[in-house]
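In response to a reviewer's request, we include the raw inputs and outputs for one of the modeled complexes. The two entities were modeled together in a single run.
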Amino acid sequence: MSIATPCVSPRSSLRRWLAPLCALLFAAAAEADGDAGYQALRDWLAAGDPPTEGLTAGQHFGAKDRAQLEAYIPRTAWTYYFFDDMDMEVAAPGDYPPPPTWGKAVKAGYTLDDRGVLKGFTGGGYPFPEVTPDDPQAAYKVIWNMLWRPGQNDYDMPMVTWLRGEGGKLDRKLEYMAVNSTYAKGDECLVPGYEEVKSKRIMEFRSPRDMAGAKDMLVSFVDHDREDSGWLYMPAQRKPRRTLASERTSELMGMDMIREDMDGFGGKVHENNWTYLGTRNVVATINVADNPEFGGPHLWVPNKARWEVRKAHVLLIEPKAKDHPYSHRVVFIDAENFWTLWMFAFDKADDQLLRMQQHFLKYTESYDDEPPQQAPYISQDWNKSVGHHVLMHLGETDINAKKPHATMSHCYTNKRVFSSARARQYYSLRNMISGRR
Amino acid sequence: MTLRRHGLLAVAALLTGLPLTAPAIITLNDNIEVEGFVQSQNILRTPQMDDAEFIMQRNTAQIESKYYFLKDSTAFGRFNTGKLEEATFTFVGRAVYDSIYDIRESYRDDYIGRENGPRQHEGKVREAYLDLVLPPFSLRLGKQQIVWGETDNFRALDVINPLDLSWHWVWESWEDIRIPLWAARGVYDIGKIGKLEESFLEVVYIPWDVRQNVVETDPNKPWSLYGPGAQALPNSALVGNDLLDLNLKVIDGRPGRKLENGQAGFRFKAVWGNVDFSFNYFYSFSADPRAQFRNEFTRVTPTALNAVVETKYPRNHLVGFTANYSEEKYTQTVFRLETTFTTGVPITIAPGAPLSVDPNQDQFETARRSVVMLAADRPTWMKWLNKDRTIFLSSQIFWRRWLDYDESFRGLSSALPATLNGVVQPGRFFSVNNDEIDQDEVVMTFSASTTYGDAGLLQPRFVFAFDPRSTGAYNQIYVDYLLSTHVVLRFQQNLFWRFGGKEIGPWQLGDLWGHSNGQSRHESVFQFIYQF
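The model returned the following structure tokens for the whole complex.
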């Protein structure tokens, strides 16, 4: 499968004539808006899928190898990911299968409605294990697989986030912890009686002190049409406050992302138009040795990290709302395990890059012989992760190209299995009425 | 060099010698976390906006620590605790020094020769409590703050802890001015009952710690509370045609530390659909005591009126209901509701009120009172003001009603220059109370806040509060700038004003003391905060 383009089709002789013209026009347009424009990314996609073996496994690539790497790094990211002392180790593509039981607990009877919304699905596996490129609903199926992927929940996740300006200027460093559990597990629910709940999360800030003790609880529901329920406890108020879930386009806590950017796409499916753009081989930090260090002139992107060439589904997401900040969002989702690898969102004002995101992942089975680093403020037993056969989120970088500014996170993620009784107690409003102070 | 100068130098050294690269939070052996702040608060009072008076130079150091001594049913890393899964100990200590009484000669001179100096120091354990988690039960034991309700910055259900208003009235974070109480707070997590989700029952018991809201009555203090009269203490009384000295003896009637003086309450909270609600009950002593004249001890001598009053802390029954609803589709707004009914609210009665209102003629009664509060919160896009982030708008209307109302209900008393046969007597002041309370008391508030800058380091907030009956109003413009992980710079401008009249109003919002005669309490607040 190659990337679909609006102009090129081998079946039509007229189109054969038009193809070079289109290419010229695209090239001209791309030249006009540089690497950061939406059209430039579409041109890069249209240029063809490079081979999986195009980058020699085990080799370290640097700035001198840019010509070789350009086909594997989305063009929109070139400005940030190519720099003088870049060191990109490329490993052989790995195999990261889901847990052996994955898919066996899925309850039949779910459907996609005419808005593309998944109805009646309760987890336990991918809703659409097979996605064929010619399926008119392929984009929906890929995004639903991403939204129900294995490993997205059930963890302790201590985090450190750096907010940096140009030249690496550190504006703020945050420490916080997220704990998250899947409730909807197919034919069973983590806490019987809560079958309407998809997952619950509690996140608490640790530092700096002006944020310390702030915590939120978020309840997501199986029914996609139902908005999340959220409460925010602020130590200065000493009580939880109900939060609004449907506002998803404001930046979070000064970070360079909006709620809808979570995992590449964290919004409502029916609020967007969806196009499946095919698959594309890209490099991804899919099974890093460790939380990567940050490099580049601004310390915004991973450096000296281990990458792999991964086949990714490419989705084009166009918000329907006229006042949405994005004109287009392009998401690259791993074709094997449906984790988001790259996301690019373009400004509605000029179709230039507004925000981008790239994720760092690690497979649990590699925790055994290649454990990630411990969080600077808590030690965890990595053995709890081994045997789960899922990818873990070890961090991400979020760049706002217009400011310009970036938010980089290290997540020290460890699997956590809650008993039904413990989950009922932990993820409760009762736990939100007081905090560390 | 005086002790005072040593104190000032110590503060200066502390503020300038703080490390800028220290960890954001101090962690000791994985189980103990220490954080806190050092703050210097400087206030300029700007009565007519064309001059300034330095009224506060308050330095605060606060230490907050948490000790995680029991995790995963193992205490101190070795003892199995069975069903007791987690336990922590939290400590918050605070030390305060207001150097204004050393810096300003006129302030210092006010206290020369007086038995009680200015309250310029404070050092106390703010909070110290043990948290025990024994699912589905959790317990907090110790000195703590307990906050109920949906209202911001006005008191209906949030009355368990009294407030210390003596430093700076209510214009500080309430987290810092609540008076923590020794209490037990247990929560039993019920979970799902029928259509109710997230339900729990909370029980609060305060065995003997009865406190009152603290207000400053010394008129020499910058934030003392006195009526719209002279800045003085009443010292005279008119008996017949004689001007006598007033000797007022105050008996503190605060309930003693006995078990029978316990206070207790409960709250049931749950979520029904998208509505989050609670039923509350609290049985307590009023934290707003009022003076009851002990007429049996009143004596008149040829030169003096010797009067005795006793501060009374009547028992209250408080019943409340709260709810909030997140309307996501049409208004994208969180609506909040709080309503209470309270018995035993103490009230001052005007002298000479009819026997039907004040049968004992002791100028003291209790009444019943209700509150209804409605509020709405909405993160709102105003891209002409902020293109990256929403502006959080919050508004509320707070309506309080005296159910047993009488026109003789009175609020703040005032000191007025004493006159005899139409001649003002220098240095002598009467106590009068012309502050008639309205049966319905209303206040409306609006606030807007957002963040600016690449990392949201500039955090402005605008607050407006208005009392439509007295026409008193308050504006606050507030900006935090997070200079670094450790340093926060804060500027706050408080403006007190009114449309007209001289009515104080129950919230003391407007230009109560000055009404533009140079005594206004407009102020500019500058804070330097080092946090760790």
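As requested, we also summarize the result in words. Chain A has a mean pLDDT of 92. Chain A touches chain B through 54 residues (CB under 8 Å).
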